[in-house]
Amino acid sequence: MTTILVTGLLAFDSGKTSVALSLVKDAVSKGIETGICKPVSAFSAWYQYGCVLHSIKRRKLIGEDIYRLHLAVGSDERIEVESPVAFLHAPPDPERAGWETSPYTAMGLQDSTLVYRISDCEKTEHYVIHKNLGRVTAVMRKEIDNLLEFLDPPPIEPEKFVLDRVLTEGRKIADECVGYLAKKYELLLIESFNNTSAPTLRSLDADKVVVVAPGKLAVYRGKDYRRALYAISNMRDPWRITVGNIVNLIHPESVVELRPDADGDCGVGIQEIIDNP
């Protein structure tokens, strides 16, 4: 069994999902029994509206990245097991924000999360934050209300929605799903969250770590990556350390040049990752 962790050098738009899609498609074409996991994900109801429609259809909160990976691998797994922790957020109504740009740059997940889901290998729970929902446009509110009809989540008061606590507890649950999937498949590909060094503790057990940047990726041995992380962290919360702090300390096994993504194919094959000694 081989586990690959794919993470990004940049906070946004590194190209993790394009690389993950290319790898899983190539692995499946070679007959490798492949599982996928995105332990923690956050997606925008405005910029990724398709995820709202997918979520309504499946009656559970589903992000765009895991949905594409799920289809690419032809997965029979419950998609919420492949994506245990998910947050749906949206930008504020610009008129209510006084047409200022600062709310867009200052508002994080704490204030923009509308709905979130935490799933383990047996059950799924959704929650809605009505105060944050009140910040969006009327049209967006109507769309989210359509989703809530299917999810029927209990409300969480803003003062009880402490993002750090939710993420900490959610990651513990997500690790159960990571462990379950790792035992089941010949190859497990884990996509990280933004540019965090690892989305969960168990994700650090990866044999290979792929760091993606626009145009290139670097492949690191998992043990080298863990050693560097241990040098600068207590290893209890690797998601607080960004990838840039780690790759400055170690050398990659190889660097692969990528081509512009065309339909989930950026030109990288699975053997280029796992064949490195």
Summarize the structure in words.
With 277 residues, this protein is α/β, with parallel strands linked by helices. It has helices spanning 16-29, 49-58, 64-73, 79-82, 102-106, 109-112, 130-133, 138-151, 163-184, 222-232, 243-247, 271-274; strands spanning 2-8, 34-37, 40-44, 85-89, 113-119, 124-128, 187-191, 208-213, 216-221, 254-257. The protein has a domain at 1-33 and 186-277. 39% of the residues lie in helices and 19% in strands. The strands form two sheets. It has a six-stranded mixed beta sheet, sandwiched between helices. Strand 8 (208-213) and strand 9 form a beta hairpin. Helix 1 (16-29) packs parallel to helix 3 (64-73) and helix 2 runs parallel beside helix 8 (138-151). The longest helix is centred in the middle third of the chain and has 22 residues, at 163-184. The chain starts with a strand and ends with a helix.
Which secondary structure elements does this structure contain, and how are they paired or packed?
Elements lengths: L1 E7 L7 H14 L4 E4 L2 E5 L4 H10 L5 H10 L5 H4 L2 E5 L12 H5 L2 H4 E7 L4 E5 L1 H4 L4 H14 L11 H22 L2 E5 L16 E6 L2 E6 H11 L10 H5 L6 E4 L13 H4 L3
Parallel strand pairs: 1-7, 1-8, 2-7, 3-4
Antiparallel strand pairs: 4-5, 5-6, 8-9, 9-10
Helix pairs in contact: 1-3, 2-8
